[in-house]
Amino acid sequence: MLNPLGNPIGIVSDINENRLLPHIVNISFTLHQAGKYKIHIRVDGNEISNSPFQKEFLAGPADPQQSTIGIASSIIVVTRDVVHSLQLDCRDKFGNYCKAMENRFDLKLTKIGNPSALTNTELALSEQKLETKVIGEEGAYKAQLLYDSVILKNGDFTLVVLSNVDGAKLHKEIGRKKMNVTFEAKLASKENSYLDFSKKPKKVHCSISARQIKVREYYLKVFSNNVCSFRVLPSTKTLVIDDGIQAPLSVVCKEKYLFLATYATFLNRKFVGGDTFAMKMSYFQQELAALNIKRSQSKYAVSISRQHALRDSMKQLKNASASDWCRPFQIKFQGEQAEDLGGVLREWFHVLSRALFAPSNQLFVGFRDDNQALVRPNNARPPEFAKIKYFEFAGKIVGKCLLESAITRDSNCYIRACFARSFLAQILGLRVHYKHFENDDPEFFTNKIQYILSNDIADLSLVFAEEIYSSDGKLEKIIELKPNGKNCVVNNDNKIEYLDLLAQQRLCKEIQEEKNAFLKGLNDLIPDSLLSIFDENELELLICGTCEYDINDLKLNHAVIGRTSEFEKILSWFWSTIANFTQQEMARLLQFVTGCSQLPPEGFSELSPKFQIVNAMVTGTLPTAHTCFNELCLPIYDSLDDMQHSLLIAINEGSEGFGMS
């Protein structure tokens, strides 16, 4: 049998002769993919008359747990009494496109701060769009979209209902394609000790862009998918902005719902390029190239020695302006004859990658001392790298690499580095999370984080403070994770807060100066609004690209745990599946299992711990992974198709970055 793509599949599960009609044979099989199929029937290897037969198999009824609405974030903005269209993506239980029935949808709204408020909705189905009208008060609502009384896959969201006046204002401001919109507000928080609240609340201006809020000169980096950082309090008068690094800031804004709606609209706008990594990368490169379409074509000459590439490059680019960095570079390695037609530039990026990001050079380091550690800026770097300018230069090199890839798209340039997930998260403005330790510092995650999560810690005598020791084991200082933290005991009720603050300290605050310098260099060339369409794993692929992955190398250098006769079939299907993977899909698999898309120089043989395939001892669920141990846990599946589908979902969706909790 051939599937709709024309690929052969062997799925016949039962063949029985019809006892009443001897010349008829009943053939039964199971299909999950809708479409037109060619069915070949052979006897002794020969096609029977009229074979192959064509048969179309239709999709099943819509399944709410597989169906979604087309929203880029968890906030939807509508205007009261005005019809708003929601794009539907209806699927059956096997993921096939299908049509929904109009009278089976329901939209439930609960006003935040006033659950008793009465609100009516009108729903109408038009092709694959759900026309929605909200009749009721303006405000922020908790919304649930249901089909057959079951919430859609992404049917939990926040609905901001604007008045007609505010709706017109929003349309006018956003219609101008402005990069930011400014609101007047007043500071209301007393948590920021450096602010003087002895007088009346201070008037400020809040400028909103795609991923940044600027309050005076106070920047809050906000992860775009986490709208709860803009939560409306029960009073519905105060907005709390929390980036997870600085103290939360509360502002009072008369146009609070327009404020929130503007942020949500910026959020939705930046995903116009598409949802897959390939579509995002194409959009990113198109937009970046368009921003630099008028760049000077005169080349900026850089002549360096290979032995002192970093020193020479920094010296020659010391006085280069941002516009100079956007010019084409003419790279020459002293004493070498190669003409730079693109290859020398890529070699320059490769040499500088090694000088800047190799852990052995101590400018960027991991939490553990080996060549596979994921690196981040080193706040305890050696004296020769003491100046913060090295990190700004590193950011510029990454930005230049991305810029050249966008402008000369037929020849992408990449940085060879294995960046820590928490560092990639901070480049994007994401809040770091204690779960980042699993990738960045596996030993610490296993010995401390996991132990605290899994056990009663009442007798551990932990406090909200971090003790810092010297290399010879002497206590140097104590850093409080919150005010009076050394006197605040960690217990089972507040241990998640403790782990979160520990992550902020270890992963973020320790390297804040170095990170800010890196971002300054990067954002001089690459707008952060363009970078923010990616998650951490996608950002790594954008910056670092993929390796050459040899499946035979993996077959020779892996371990199997829980081998049984039933699991042997799953292993066979696994090898068949990844044999057809693209290099990008292999990179996603490696990210999912090890936390990084890059392999050591010697390939899978040098991976430590060894790549392990584990019998998960469950049936039909998604694969899971333990990056601490490089473990891929595979469940038992009924068919090859089921396993392929589940594995692709796991590596593409299960490996997404951490948001704020």
UniProtKB/TrEMBL annotation:
<dbReference type="InterPro" id="IPR050409">
    <property type="entry name" value="E3_ubiq-protein_ligase"/>
</dbReference>
<dbReference type="InterPro" id="IPR035983">
    <property type="entry name" value="Hect_E3_ubiquitin_ligase"/>
</dbReference>
<dbReference type="InterPro" id="IPR013783">
    <property type="entry name" value="Ig-like_fold"/>
</dbReference>
<dbReference type="GO" id="GO:0006511">
    <property type="term" value="P:ubiquitin-dependent protein catabolic process"/>
</dbReference>
<comment type="pathway">
    <text>Protein modification; protein ubiquitination.</text>
</comment>
<dbReference type="InterPro" id="IPR000569">
    <property type="entry name" value="HECT_dom"/>
</dbReference>
<dbReference type="GO" id="GO:0005829">
    <property type="term" value="C:cytosol"/>
</dbReference>
<dbReference type="GO" id="GO:0061630">
    <property type="term" value="F:ubiquitin protein ligase activity"/>
</dbReference>
<dbReference type="InterPro" id="IPR014756">
    <property type="entry name" value="Ig_E-set"/>
</dbReference>
<dbReference type="GO" id="GO:0043066">
    <property type="term" value="P:negative regulation of apoptotic process"/>
</dbReference>
<feature type="active site" description="Glycyl thioester intermediate">
    <location>
        <position position="628"/>
    </location>
</feature>
<keyword id="KW-0808">Transferase</keyword>
<dbReference type="InterPro" id="IPR017868">
    <property type="entry name" value="Filamin/ABP280_repeat-like"/>
</dbReference>
<keyword id="KW-0833">Ubl conjugation pathway</keyword>
<dbReference type="GO" id="GO:0005737">
    <property type="term" value="C:cytoplasm"/>
</dbReference>
<dbReference type="InterPro" id="IPR058738">
    <property type="entry name" value="PH-like_AREL1"/>
</dbReference>
<feature type="repeat" description="Filamin">
    <location>
        <begin position="1"/>
        <end position="57"/>
    </location>
</feature>
<feature type="domain" description="HECT">
    <location>
        <begin position="321"/>
        <end position="661"/>
    </location>
</feature>
<dbReference type="Pfam" id="PF25916">
    <property type="entry name" value="AREL1_PH-like"/>
</dbReference>
<protein>
    <recommendedName>
        <fullName>HECT-type E3 ubiquitin transferase</fullName>
        <ecNumber>2.3.2.26</ecNumber>
    </recommendedName>
</protein>
<dbReference type="Pfam" id="PF00632">
    <property type="entry name" value="HECT"/>
</dbReference>
